[in-house]
Amino acid sequence: MAPQKTHQENHEETIIALKNENERLKNENQQLQSNNSQVDKTEFQNSQTRFSTIFEYSRLGNKVITADLKIVQVNPAMVALLGYSSKEEIIGTQILDYSPKENHKHWQMLQKQLWKEATPSFSLETVLIRKDGSLIWCQVTSILFPDQGETLGYTIIEDITEKHDLRLQKDEFIGIATHELKTPITSLKASLQLMNRMIKNESAIPEKIAKLAADAQLYTLKLTHLVEDYLNTAKYEQGKLSINKRCFPLSDVIDGCCNHVQLDRRHYVTHSGDLAIEVYADRHKIDQVIVNFVNNALKYAPASEEIAIRVEQLKDHIKISVSDKGAGIPPEDIPHLFDRYYQINKGNTQTPGLGLGLYISAQIIKAHGGEIGVDSELGKGSTFWFTLPVQSDSF
């Protein structure tokens, strides 16, 4: 019979067993950490490979810059875009070396927004100088990313020179067309004014004829303002839009802005909210925005019989919205709706128009210190809206 172990011996064996188990667990943990480290390292290397592949083979110009706008990496497309033959000619230089002095402010704004304001991404249009001295218009989009303790900027540059030239051609065409329209419109306006004065003095004129003549004069006045706006499109770009504010109730513009809708007998306009609310704004230009919204509904939601205008009094602003029950707007189009010349494709065709209505509306509301936007859901319709600040002494 084996001798019975003492309490002390059992205690020592337990301690040794615990030590052995602890050592085993420690070794296992180290092995797991080693395996995880290897997995992380492998995934990091794979990620770097994917990034390098995308960077190198992108058809758009790609570059990486530091906070002081020094170029630390470029891809072949960027080298070709600037007209050079190798990366080494560009790496180590500054992006300002390829920018006309008058455009340096664009890159300084990018620098401020990304590195000082911590904006997630920043986009701009600017001009770059190629090696041969020629200029190209570019769309620049940049984001920040961390790299070995430093924050770098990853920038994608697209050559939009052709698009920019096309826009200039459109501007020239609009300028010529609207200038040519001014003379006949002025004559038409004078004739309608004379006709309406004569109608007022004639009791035998049917009321409907008098109403049509008055509407014709109103629409001619609106057309005159539109022509002036198109002639002055450049002022919108330069922030020189003229705003003539005065107090007026919204009913002044909402009640009479949509008579053309009633005349087509296919649609009707409903109003809700307090139309008697007074705003301090440019009456003509607010009328223009509402008409643009209504015409947009007629154009893109022709099957929507009802077009609803709503006025809301909120805490520090007034919101005016125009809603339809049409097909809605594709999500990919929404961010661009207020861009200059942007038009929604319907199938393989575009609806008639110059694509300036919503752009001009956005500039008008911006000049009033308000906001503009759209809410839309496919199959359920769209609501275009804008806000105006509540009247204050700051006006």
Fold and architecture overview:
With 395 residues, the chain is α+β, with helices and mostly antiparallel strands. The protein is built from 10 helices and 14 strands. The chain has helices at 7-57, 76-81, 104-116, 161-200, 207-231, 233-237, 251-254, 259-263, 283-300, 357-367; strands at residues 61-65, 71-74, 121-129, 135-147, 150-159, 246-249, 268-272, 278-281, 306-313, 317-324, 345-346, 349-350, 372-377, 381-389. The strands form 4 sheets. Strands 2-1-5-4-3 form a 5-stranded antiparallel β-sheet, sandwiched between helices. Strands 7-9-10-14-13 form a 5-stranded mixed β-sheet. A two-stranded antiparallel sheet has the order 6-8. Helix 4 (161-200) runs antiparallel to helix 5 and helix 9 (283-300) runs antiparallel to helix 10 (357-367). It starts with 6 loop residues before the first helix and ends in a 6-residue tail after the last strand.
Beta content comes to 15-25%
Enumerate the spans where pLDDT stays under 50 for 5 or more consecutive residues: 5-12
Ends: how far apart? 107 Å
Provide a count of the helices: 10
SS-derived structural category: alpha+beta
Instruction: Name the assembly state.
Output: single chain
Largest sheet: 5 strands, antiparallel
- For the biggest β-sheet, the strand order reads 2-1-5-4-3
The gyration radius over C-alpha positions equals: 33 Å
Instruction: Determine the mean pLDDT.
Output: 79
* Share of residues in helices: 40-55%
Pfam family, one: HisKA
EC number: 2.7.13.3
Domain PAC: 122-172
Catalytic activity: ATP + protein L-histidine = ADP + protein N-phospho-L-histidine
